[in-house]
## 1
Amino acid sequence: MSIFWIYFMLFVSAFLECLCSSTTNNSDVKLLLVSFDGFRASYLELYAFPNLQKMITSGTLVKHVNNVFVTKTFPNHYSIVTGRFAESHGVVANTMYDTATNKSFSTFEDKDPFWWNEATPIWVTNQQQGHKSGGAMWPGTDVFIHNTTPSYYLNYNYSTPFSKRVDHIIEWFTNSTGPINFGTLYWEEPDSTGHRSGPDSKELKNKLKEVDNNIGYLIDQLQKTGLWNTVNIIITSDHGMAQCSDKKVIQLDNCIGRGNYTRVTNSPVAAILPLSDVNYVYKLLSNCDTHMKVYLKEDIPDRFHYKHNKRIQPILLVADEGWTIVQNGSITQLGDHGYDNALPSMHPLLVAYGPVFKRGYKINSINNIDIYPLMCRVLGLKEEPNNGTFGNVRCLLASESCVGLPDVIGIVIGSLMILITVLCLLILLKKRATPRRAFARLQLQDDDDDDPLID
Ligand code: AMP
Ligand code: ZN
Ligand code: ZN
């Protein structure tokens, strides 16, 4: 009987789900995607964040976002806007080298579309499907990817204040001739302070207060212009931050001569291009330090999704959490990222606020490649091929009804209570309905003929 009730409730909720998801209307939905670089998930416990909490209370919080390997800025920002792993979108690191063309890429030299054209970011798809996009310094937004930049964009300049970036975003959303429906906004903090002072520092805590003030400024401007109740906002980040130390340094010069290799990326994930025999270089490096894993390209673990691209170099060094790879000498920074993407310290969070998102909803984790199909659904766009799964993120949407574990427990307990009440009532009624059997008076009959027992 109780099983019947559970199935019945689940059936009803599944039915309602289908009904709701088929009635989403995206015609004039607006979406703003914001990244605060290096905002580690656990930073939420370090400071009260009055402004961010406002959005969490009336929106949705994802406590951990599983980001892609390598946990660096360019690969992850491009994964968020393409829904692809680094091996599939081609921006495999912050610095890259292509052997066939002899081309190099760095954060300072990132404008060649060659590096970006293996995928199509959502701002391009949005424009191809009839809308306007805006880009305020999100990596790639000042590049002609597939011959297209966002309709409005800013050339990257780290000294442009946050407030100015926000003012541009507001102007683009309200532009009287051609407003955007999708904007991206990027800010360098708390990453810079995290590198300089470390994630456990007082400086970092102070910077978080400043980041929350930045969010406050964004909210104020959206409210002043009447956008606050119409623009949907996703605040997330590319990666977290781990504490480093000058006592955790791996010195390659102790193991291998510099003439044997070129370091294409440095630390904590070093891409090694051997200049002599690959196996010889591999052997020297594999015996170098127990705090560093050494992989031949073909042996890189599948879970990294970091093998199938010609920009990935023949040997990959991956330092353990908190360790730094150098050729010699020491380090000056106290925080870094780039490590294994399974480490919680590498994970950012996500906050979604606005009419399309659930209010007061919290879930533990999603993948950052799932943000792309979520955004496409919100904007009503046909997705480009990607590695993301909408099913993982659909519950963030107000239009989707989801039965979580607490709901299921509630349904089971509720059904049991109803069942027990009904059973008790039935027993009681049954007792009332049965007529009481009167006591039969015992008739003592005279039996004079009886023989006495004892003569
Ligand atoms: P990471 O070392 O991975 O933390 O990289 C963070 C740095 O990337 C920032 O401090 C910026 O200097 C740089 N950066 C971020 N966005 C852009 C951009 N759109 N164009 C160029 N460089 C950028
Ligand atoms: Zn970053
Ligand atoms: Zn960084």
Note: The first strand starts at residue 30 and ends at 36.
## 2
Amino acid sequence: MSPQQAVAAVVVLAAGQGTRMRSTTPKVLHEMGGRSMLGHVLAATGPLGAGTTLVVVGAGREAVAEHLAAVAPGARPVVQEEQRGSGHAAAVALAAAPDLTGPVLLVNGDAPLLRPETVTALVEAHRAAGAVLTVLTAEVEDPTGLGRVVRDASGAVTGIVEERDATPEQRAITEVNAGVYVGDAAALRRALARIDQDNDQGELYLTDAVGLLVGDGEPVAGAVAEDPDDVLGCNDQREVAARRRTLNDRVLDGLMRAGVTVVDPATTWVDVTASVAAGARLLPGVQLHGTTSVGAGAVVGPDTTLVDTGVGEGASVVRSHCLGSVVGPGATVGPFSYLRPGTDLSRGAKVGAFVETKNARVGEDSKVPHLSYVGDATIGRGANVGAATVFVNYDGVTKHHTTIGDHVRIGSDTMLVAPVTVGDGAYTAAGSVITHDVPPGAMGVARAAQRNVAGWVRRRRPGTAAAQAAAAATGPAEDAAGARPVTGGDGADRPTEPDGNHDQ
Ligand code: UD1
Ligand code: CA
């Protein structure tokens, strides 16, 4: 242990079955606020800088060890073959590190609200008291289900008694054991060697080490947590939901204090890993997950979920679902759009209503306003993609790329069959199926020519409202035109065409 390390080791007890969760997922892997419960405990103890972190695994050990390798590769899993109680778990951990000496932090793996400052205060209290074991405690309104802290007339801790083993007087105690302890490794080894299963559950209780050391005349202390929320454990799905809510309230409190507008905290969920700049506005029904970041002046929501997505300053995302995307400064998204991974909207770009994008770069001030699919695409600046355009990127086997130049106008209902390139300043005619490159400045037209069959309604739908309307519009002259079909051109050279670009 180096001088700057507050403890020699951190031991997380995470082998329990979590039977009350009634879940196939190991208890400590249940997620809240963007981290597993175990992840939260490791985040709270990480700042101690302990050289050794041991995590006792048992129930669901493969899943827990795999998760541990991903979130805390420096931590070492220690297997507790049989779940014989928290005291047994602690003993197994210490046995796996026989050379360990000095203060060790022991912590239950199901304490997701624990914060670094609370852990640091406990370690500080332990040092100040000169104790061999210090227990973190909390004064709570409802101690149901928790171990009670028993003190003598002088206020010194004499033991911890589990609720099921407690006398009625002890049950009335509202100071509870948090399940977080700092103990001298040697003292812990001595005490844990002597604990027994003489309790209602027939388990080896870590908490019995307290009474044993007190009985030996060793100094044992209790440190009361400043915020009782910090120590709340998590034993069933209702408690997971309650802790998740508390965690979220803390995150939103921090954001609001820093100048973020949260219109409806009850329906806004922000992971501890997400960030929101001062001056941003979160409207009701927003969820910000993972590494999502929201810039100053941006507006997100209502009803928007962002996962690992960066939203730039002054951008807006309305009623949309975005994964692994970048929404540039001043860009706008939605309502009702789906941005999939690899979407990168440059400054001022627009993805409007009912648009799906994937692996698509949309250049500055370019617009995809309505009802389109943009997959595997690069779009230059100042371009407009008309309504109902599809970037046809998949040939059934392989995905292909489409490149659209600067200031291009893609007509509505264009199919861009990739791989294909539309050059700078080019147009495509509405309704085209573009299978060949369109050179810069050209108009790509790929659609059947229009044919008008004159008088068809009068002959084939006589007496209908349509026939009457047609007769009123054309008068008897239309009759004179008879059945002679009139064939039009493809329309691409008409001044009102070709874009059909719906850009407003
Ligand atoms: C425990 C404490 C209780 C305290 C409460 C705080 C004991 C005996 N009681 O009760 O005083 O108020 O936490 O939340 O410790 N574990 C193992 N291996 C085992 C058994 C448990 O690793 O064989 C781990 C669990 O995964 C859990 C921790 O130890 O993280 C505590 O076990 P749990 O069954 O949750 O104890 P509680 O009844 O909550
Ligand atoms: Ca527990």
Note: Residues 13-16, 56, 58, 80, 83-86, 88-89, 108-110, 146-147, 160, 162, 176-179, 205-207, 233, 235 surround uridine-diphosphate-N-acetylglucosamine (ligand 1) (CB under 6 Å).
